[in-house]
Every structure is written in structure tokens, then in C-alpha cells.
Amino acid sequence: MSDFPKGLVAFTFLVFFSHVGFCGPVSEVCLNWFSKHKIVAGIKCQWECAAAPVGMGTFDCGSECENLCELAATGGLESQGIYTPYLTIEEGKFAAKHPKDALKAYKLKELAEKMTLEEFGRSDFDDESDAFRHYVWAGLLSKELGTEVAKNILDAHESGGEVNAPSRLMDLSNNRAGLISAEILKTKKQLSEKEIRSAALQELKRGKLIVLRKRGGPR
Amino acid sequence: MKKTVVFLGTFILSGTLGGLWYLYANFHPYLAGQEFMSVESAEKKWGQKAFDAIKFQNAPMSERAGMAVDLIKKKTYLNQPLERVIKEMGPRSGYFISERIPTYFVVEGWEKNENSWQLVFLPDRNGNIVEDVRIHKNCCSSDIWKNKGIIPPKD
Q1: What is the pTM of this model?
Q2: CA B110 to CA B89: how far, in whole Å?
């Protein structure tokens, strides 16, 4: 058996995201534009970037060449997939633009997974534990980063797959339930980890969450 | 003297570069904090049973575990597209880090307060090809058992 220290992963993410973070913010439109023109890191990067054709929507991208080239040089563009093969393209873009929020979201995901294991004794797919995990993660994200950022992260997480896949629709529905619940708790000034967890269990018991494959639980 | 310095310098430099390359090639930060069972331990515990993707889908957990050992030892899906795993082994169960990583329970211990294990198909750096197949402890780490007031079961 092997047991890696958990701190190591947080440290790696911190190093990676802070590395990306120094490059300054770049717009999603320009990230796409830069990738589309297949401009690579190196001494010619800024020349090629500045000379790349721009359109109406990408008119300002030339002014972001320095940041874009620095991102490419530090692996900020390509390594989004390299370091984290489980990230979607949209999540990678989000991490490049908002490294601190991405790190926070990652830690909250771990917390939601831990809560799921404590409540269900398993972390499964399409079942009650899956619904709970999504609801709680959405609630925690809303608590720590605000509803709008939370929604952006959750949508980025669900991007890339088959649009009408039942599993994806289940996740989106339970994410939404978690966000709404956090809003309600916020207005009551009761938004806390404990309350989010408790609300998730209550809504699951009442049949308010979408579960595709009933397996029982919490235990 | 000069030769020795050059030799030592080259030795240290190549060793450092080799080490860095090894770390780059083998270190996957997303596996940090996870607990895996070696295939040797799994074979000792569950034995080995010929893997068949169709049979695996409906097999009881006791047989699934043995098939998992066979699949890993024979490297059945190594370097194959992740989609092939889902296509042949059917709907997944379990969860490991992301919905994009195929997982299948081989031991479900939650009703008996025992550990649960799942087969995980780890993707390559681009997330497309199966780079490694391992048996992962889905639940529970010793701290979770202790939080529940339960003495952690032996594996």
C-alpha cells in the first residue's frame, strides 16, 4: 500500500497556480485566440503573438501577448491538462484566470468528498452519495466564493461531456439545489459547513435531490 | 585533479537531471493522499479469476475482485483509450477524484463497516489513455473510521 501525504498535493497546486497567477489576468477570448493560432512559448512568442491576425472580438488581444507568452512559458496553458488530467478545458481556463479561487475550489471539493465518506461510507456514482457530494460542494463554494463564482466553477466542472447525459443533468440539478440552499441559509444568516451538510441530508431524505441509481444511505 | 572535478560535476549534474526527469515522469500530484492496494496483496486476499468484461458487469463482488487482479496482471487495458474501458466494462460504479476517471467497485464494505475497494483506470497526462490500473480504497481512511467511533477494520 502507498499513502502519499495530502499536504503535498495542496503544495503542488499552490506552486502551480501561484506560478500561473503571477502572469496577470488574461481574458478567456484571448486565451482561445492564442491557442487557436498555435503560438508556442519561446523567444519568438511575443513577435508571433503580436503579428497574429485579430478580429472584432479579439482586437485587444495583442496587448495581452506578454501575459499570454508568460503563461505559455510557465506551462500555464498546456499543463492545465498535464498536471490535472481530470480537469475539463473550461476548468483549466478558470484556473489560469483565477488561481486562488481554483485552489480554494479544489480544497472544498476534498472537504465535500470527506463529508460524503463520513455520511455514506462510500463515494459512488449516480447514487445518493453522488447527489450529496455535489450539493455540499456547491453550498461550500457559494459560502466561500459567492454564488456567481461558485456557479462558474460548477458549470466549468460539468462542461465537456455529452450535453444531455443523465449523469450530467443529475449533477447540474443537484449543484443548483446546493446553490439555492446556500442562498436561503445566507439570508437566514445560518450559512455554515454544518448547516449545508444538514440541509443536504434533509433534502435527500425528502426526495428533493435527483438520484439515478438508488443504493441507500446515509448509513 | 581537474579530471576528478569534471567527472564528479558531470556525475552530479546527470544524476540531478535524471532525478528531475524521473520525478516529472512518475509524480502525479493528484494521487497524493490516496491509498492503494498492491496487486500482490490483492491476489493474496482475493485470488485471481480470468477477466471477462461481459461477466464482470454482472459478477458478484467476490468474483469482481479476483477479475480485477487478473486484469491488472495481464495489463488488459494498459495504453488503451479510456472510452474503451467504459464501452466494454459497462456503467461505472464508485468515484475517484473526478467523474472522468472510470472506476468499478470490487468490494462494497459500507453495510458491514468494512473497507470498500474499487478498480481505477488512471489516465495519462492528457486524460485520454489508460496509463495505470490500480485498486484504490474508496472508503475509509483510518481518520474517517475514528470520526465515526469505529476501530478501523484490517484490510
Answers
A1: 0.74
A2: 23
